[in-house]
Amino acid sequence: MTTDTLRPLVGTLKALAHPVRLRILALLRDGELCVCEVAEVLGLAPSTVSEHLTGLRRTGLVREWKVGRWVHVALAEEAAARPVLEALWPLMAAAREELARDRAQARALRCETCDPDGCPAPRSKPA
């Protein structure tokens, strides 16, 4: 195995090596969110959240799309991302309470932070 063949794995591990990105992945475990919702829950500027999402998207762990002027994100559905994500959840068990609070706050937002009438797209729940 050469260094070039390890680059994708190194990129994925680097993307996972930040607490904000791990919190984002945990938030998305319950389904898609608007970037503004993620920013609100994390208490970060949307531009900062977008930077973190760029790294996660590059590694294939998340996907994003526009809904009107809002950007929505979700965990990737590709088979290559599944083993990494499934291995990650048990490793994050120590932070279970904090992550549960994050998810509860995200569910309560219903995208009110970006539009008083809510985002135009319904949320999907992972299978």
Describe, in plain words, how this protein is organized in 3D:
InterPro entries: ArsR-like_HTH (IPR011991), HTH_ArsR_DNA-bd_dom (IPR001845), HTH_MetalResp_TranReg (IPR051081), WH-like_DNA-bd_sf (IPR036388), WH_DNA-bd_sf (IPR036390). It comes from Geothrix limicola. Pfam families: HTH_5. This is HTH arsR-type domain-containing protein. Strand 2 and strand 3 (70-75) form a beta hairpin. It contains six helices and three strands. It has a single domain, classed as Orthogonal Bundle (Arc Repressor Mutant, subunit A). The chain is mainly alpha-helical. A three-stranded antiparallel sheet has the order 1-3-2.
The H-level CATH homologous superfamily, spelled out, is Winged helix-like DNA-binding domain superfamily/Winged helix DNA-binding domain
The secondary-structure class comes to: mainly alpha
Would you state the CATH class?
Answer: Mainly Alpha
Cα radius of gyration in angstroms: 15 Å
Strand segment count: 3
CATH topology: Arc Repressor Mutant, subunit A
CATH architecture: Orthogonal Bundle
Beta-strand residue percentage: 5-15%
Shape: globular
Provide the number of structural domains.
Answer: 1
Note the gap between the termini.
35 Å
Q: Give me the number of helical elements.
A: 6
Report strand order across the widest sheet: 1-3-2
Largest sheet features: 3 strands, antiparallel
Mean pLDDT: 85
> Which ranges are low-confidence, i.e. pLDDT below 50, for 5 or more consecutive residues?
120-127
Task: Tell me the helix content.
Answer: 40-55%
Task: Give the SSE string.
Answer: HHEHHEEHH
